[in-house]
Amino acid sequence: MSGHQDGSTRTATISVLVDNEAGILARVIGLFTGRGYNIDSLTVAPVEANDALSRINLVTSGTAMVITQIKAQLNRLVQVHRVSDLTEEGPHVAREMALVKVVGTGEKRVEALRIAETFRARVVDTTTGSFVFEITGASEKLDAFIDLMGDLGLAEVSRTGIAALARGARTISTLHSDPHS
Length: 181
Description:
Elements: E1 10-19, H1 24-33, E2 39-46, E3 53-62, H2 64-76, E4 80-85, H3 86-89, E5 92-103, H4 106-118, E6 122-127, E7 130-137, H5 139-149, E8 154-159, E9 163-166
Antiparallel strand pairs: 1-3, 1-4, 2-3, 5-7, 5-8, 5-9, 6-7
């Protein structure tokens, strides 16, 4: 993204393919904390049947130079197989899931259900005085839903963080090797 060479800040969604072993997540986080960089979202899970590799998806922000430094530092870790800046490398799909608890009765309860239907949020738990909604989508969609629930009895939120993949045949995984790349 050449438009960010002027020192302006951008958000980057970075996927890192790593050995699935104890301590690797601490080393990745240490790269950020040691340099004062912030992680806005972080997810990690095994991605191969034998659990040999994990995929870390993280969202951070900084100048082009800072993002380049972060990627270079990640690439220097022995346990890292591949670092991919999904934001810079092309179109990608990023989704997040949240559980949102709303406590209320009467009109506020009815309104919460109406809004949940509009946002395609599912009711996964209900009592006479509360709902727990499950909502999946882009972070901005979740932010908007949570904001609307604020006046209707929002009591608690738990979010997963970003899960992201490149669109098309582009991949960072060893699960599918593209002979043309």
